[in-house]
Every structure is written in structure tokens, then in C-alpha cells.
Design a protein that fits this description.
The protein is mainly α and about 375 residues long. α4 runs antiparallel to α6, α7 packs antiparallel against α8 and α11 runs antiparallel to α12.
Length: about 375
């Protein structure tokens, strides 16, 4: 999820005030960079997509655990409020981007003749769950949102367990390893460790130091620079051959783990209104880019032609993302935030009589 850092009263003021002010580690801008890394994955031979998505999962685990502790657990019917809020946050934009994906497919005559049942397609293209198991995915990167939604269903349990014993993280690692071996790609199981790392950071106070965070960033950049240099050398030596991938899945996993301290460090930094907007845009950019690059056929032509098409795609995706955020996502999110606040007020009202009676009972005793 690709999940988005909320700008909607879901984090308590006390938590926000405890953030640092390292502007180079702005959380919203970092997430937008991750979304752009996925764009590069689909338009170049720099296969950064898996690394970026895994880091998104870590960030999602952190923010969901933080919001649960500071807001959702203090609302009426906490679990129901939490699920409704998460669905409300993700699905409107997801459904809109799904509609855009299908519209562009039909527009360029690339829609498949046969897909899963219409009901199944409609369900997963709107409600997200089951998207990764569809035989045809109009918006391929959306598979990660299916993992995100599955994580939301079990997140409170993981938060409960990790808040009581940080070593539960070892069991999450075993689940991830076993799922990888057994081939459970349509469930969240192969990725539960990455979500749980974020949860452990929020629940266990595992906060990377500034020194460790920057060491993580520079080490990751060094690996990426070397990989890009090797890729460029191979292309220059034989430009007639298809460019090989910069690195494989194992290296992508290593890059993601190397980047974890920096990712968690960004969560402790102040964002501000502008940075929160960038964080929201990252979600829309992520969901739009696949359809746009397909419509513009950015993978065809010479390197110069592809570069021009990719540049055009970036401008178009950013412009469309901003319009969707401004006219659609942001107003909907404000309504959701108000609803969550109302649920919290109901919870506090229900507890108020009990709180008022407690001193009287103690005095009488």
C-alpha cells in the first residue's frame, strides 16, 4: 500500500509534537520517491519495484500501529471503526483508478476478450481484496493493495502480540519464510514480516538513530549507483541487445532490508501540510502510472524516444494525481477524518460517567 500517512486527525497531537525536524527525511516526500521507484521499475531495467513495495509495507505497519494505539483503540466499536476508516481511505481512489485503467485499455484496444467472472472482477477492482489472485489484472501494481487490505484484517492481533513481546517478530519471520517456500503469493503471509517490522518499531519504540539512518541511506544509494553503473556499461557495450535487469529478486530483498532504518527514521520527522500532500499523491501516482505508461507505450522505440515518452508520462501522471487528490481524494478524506473524530467522541462520552463515578466510590470506601 501502499498506505498513506494520514493528515486527518488520526495521529494525536502529542505524537506529532514528538517528531524530529530533519527536512531531508520528510516522510511524504520519501513515499513519493518510493512510488517513483516503482515507475522506474516498469519503464527501465532498474528493477526497484519489489524493494519499494516492501518498504511501503514496513511503513504501513508502523502507521497502522501508531494510529491504532493513538486513535482507533479509543473509538466506539474500535475494530469496526478501524476497518471502515481504512476501507474509506483506500477504496475511493482505488476504484477510480481501476475505472481509469479499464477505460484506457478499451480506448487503445488492449482489453482482454475473456477474464474472470464479471462479479469477481468488479469485487476486486472496487473492494481490492482478491486482486492479486485475478487471472487478469488491469492495473498490475495494485496487487500490493490486496496485501495491504489483508494485513488490515489481522493488524490489531499483530499489534497486540508485538506490544507484549517483541520476540513475536521471530514468528512473523518464520511465517514469511515458510510462505515463500510453500508458494503462498496470493496471501499476505510472504510479506507479514515486513508489515510486522513497522508494527514492532511503533509498539516497541525501536527508533533508528540519525547516524544509523543516514548510514542506511548512503549504503543503499551506493548499491543502487553501482548497479546503475553496471547496467549502463552493459548497454553501452552492446546497445543492440535488450538491457539486462540491474539486479535480481535476492538483491532487491537485500536493498529493502538495507533501507529499513532510513524508512523508519522518516516516520519520526515532521511533515507539514505540503509534505502530507506528497504522501497522499504517492498513493495516486502508484495506482495511475501503470495505465498511463501502457497508453503512451513507453516501452517502444529507441532509448531517446522512450526517454521522451517516459518524461511525458511523468508530467501527465503528476498532473492527474494532483487533480484527483485536490478534487476527489482530499475532500473524501476530510469527511472520513470527521467521522473518525465523531466515533472517538462517542467513546469518550461513554467513558465519562464511569470516570466521574470512580472518585465517589473510592471516597465512600
Amino acid at each position: 500500500m501502499i498506505s498513506k500517512r494520514s493528515n486527518d486527525l488520526e495521529l494525536s497531537r502529542g505524537v506529532i509534537m514528538s517528531f524530529g525536524s530533519d527536512k531531508l527525511a520528510s516522510p511524504g516526500a520519501f513515499r513519493l520517491i518510493l512510488a517513483f521507484a516503482v515507475f522506474l521499475h516498469h519503464t527501465t531495467s532498474l528493477n526497484l519495484g519489489l524493494s519499494a513495495v516492501l518498504i511501503f509495507f514496513v511503513l504501513s505497519g508502523y502507521w497502522v500501529a501508531t494510529m491504532w494505539s493513538n486513535t482507533y483503540s479509543k473509538t466506539a466499536w474500535a475494530y469496526v471503526t478501524y476497518l471502515v476508516s481504512r476501507v474509506w481511505r483506500l477504496i475511493p481512489v482505488f476504484a477510480l483508478c481501476s475505472a481509469i485503467s479499464w477505460a484506457l485499455l478499451y480506448w487503445r484496444g488492449a482489453a482482454p476478450d475473456a477474464v474472470d467472472g464479471i462479479g469477481r472482477q468488479l469485487l476486486s477492482n472496487v473492494m481490492i481484496l482478491g486482486y492479486n489472485s485475478l487471472s487478469y489484472q488491469a492495473n498490475v501494481p495494485a496487487w500490493s493493495l490486496d496485501m495491504e487490505m489483508q494485513f488490515y484484517l489481522i493488524a490489531p492481533v499483530i499489534i497486540f502480540l508485538l506490544s507484549r513481546n517483541i520476540f513475536f517478530l521471530a514468528l512473523c519471520a518464520l511465517v514469511t519464510i515458510a510462505a515463500q517456500k510453500l508458494g503462498g503469493a496470493v496471501t499476505v503471509a510472504p510479506f507479514v514480516l515486513f508489515f510486522s517490522i513497522g508494527v514492532a518499531s511503533a509498539c516497541g519504540g525501536l527508533q533508528p538513530s540519525r547516524k544509523l539512518a543516514y548510514g542506511s541511506l548512503f549504503a543503499t544509494l551506493a548499491v543502487l549507483t553501482v548497479s546503475a553503473a553496471v547496467l549502463a556499461k552493459n548497454i553501452l557495450l552492446d546497445p543492440t541487445q535488450p538491457a539486462p535487469l540491474a539486479f535480481g529478486s535476492t538483491t532487491s530483498l537485500a536493498i529493502a532490508m538495507l533501507m529499513v532504518p532510513w524508512a523508519l527514521y522518516t516516520t519520526r520527522q515532521k511533515g507539514g501540510a505540503h509534505d502530507r500532500m506528497l504522501g497522499d499523491l504517492s498513493y495516486i501516482f502508484y495506482l495511475l502510472h501503470w495505465s498511463v505508461i501502457g497508453a503512451l507505450k513507453t516501452g517502444e522505440g529507441s532509448y531517446v524516444e522512450r526517454l521522451a515518452l517516459c518524461s511525458e508520462a511523468v508530467v501527465l501522471i503528476f498532473a492527474a494525481s494532483y487533480l484527483i487528490w485536490r478534487l476527489f481524494d482530499h475532500p473524501i478524506n476530510k469527511l472520513r477524518a470527521a467521522w473518525v473524530s465523531g466515533r472517538r467522541a462517542l467513546y469518550e462520552e461513554a467513558r465519562a460517567p464511569a470516570a466521574a463515578e470512580t472518585p465517589q466510590l473510592a471516597f465512600g470506601a
